[in-house]
Amino acid sequence: MRLRFLYWLKREIGFSRKESRGFLLVVPVLTFLAFSPELFSLFSRQIDPATEKDLLEVADSLRLLGFEEVSSPFPVRVGLDTVNRSMQGLRKIPFSDADSITLQVVPGVGPTLAARIIKYEVSMGGFFSKDQLKDIYGVQPEVADRIWDYFEFDGVIRNRLAINDAAVEDLAKHPYISYGQAKVIIAYRNQHGNYEQADDLLKIRIFDPEWIQKIAPYLTF
C-alpha cells in the first residue's frame, strides 16, 4: 500500500522518491497541528485560585520587563463562576480608600501594579473619572474595568493646586502638567494677574481646551 502511494505521488504529482517519503512524514504532523486545539481543550483543566493569582503576578512582572501579552491560539476553558467565587466574602469600598494591599484582590493586579496605581492616584490628588485608570502604564483596559467590579468609584479629589499661589515646581509635580506648561501658566499670571476660573487658561492660545478640562478639577482659584 505504501509503495503504491509513493508510486502515485511520483506519477501524478511528479515527486521524486525522496520528496515522496518526506511528504509521508509531514502529513501526520500537519494532521496533529490541525486538531491540536481540540485535543488541547479536552485535556485542559481549571486553575485553582491560588495558582491563578501567582501566575497573574508573574505576568505583571513580565509586562514591566517589556514583554507583550498576546492571545493564546488554543481554546482555554474558564469556569463560569470564577469571578463570582473571587468576590465571595468581599464588600465594595470607595476607591479613594484603597491601598496597594487591597487592590491585589482584583485578578490581574499584582503587588507591583497595585503600588504603581496608588502612587499615580496620590500624585494626581484623586480621580474624577474611571477612565483615568487607563492612563497608568501597565494597566490593561480589561483590568481597569475589572477594578470597578471590586471598588466603588467615588470621584474624590483630595488635593488641589492653588493656581494663583503655586510656584512652577508645585504645578509641575502634577502628572497632567509639564514643567514647560507650568512656566507658561506662572508667566501669564505674573503679567495679567490672577486667574478667576479654568476658562481663563483658554486665553493662552497654545493650551488645548481638552487639556484644560482635564486639569480643571485639580485647580482652585
TrEMBL record:
Domain of life, per lineage: Bacteria
Name the Pfam families on file: HHH_3
- Which keywords are on file for this protein? Membrane, Transmembrane, Transmembrane helix
Q: Does the keyword Transmembrane apply?
A: yes
The membrane-spanning stretches of this chain are 21-43
Give the matching PANTHER family.
ENDONUCLEASE/EXONUCLEASE/PHOSPHATASE FAMILY DOMAIN-CONTAINING PROTEIN 1, ENDONUCLEASE_EXONUCLEASE_PHOSPHATASE FAMILY DOMAIN-CONTAINING PROTEIN 1
This protein's name? Helix-hairpin-helix domain-containing protein
Q: Which organism is it from?
A: Algoriphagus formosus
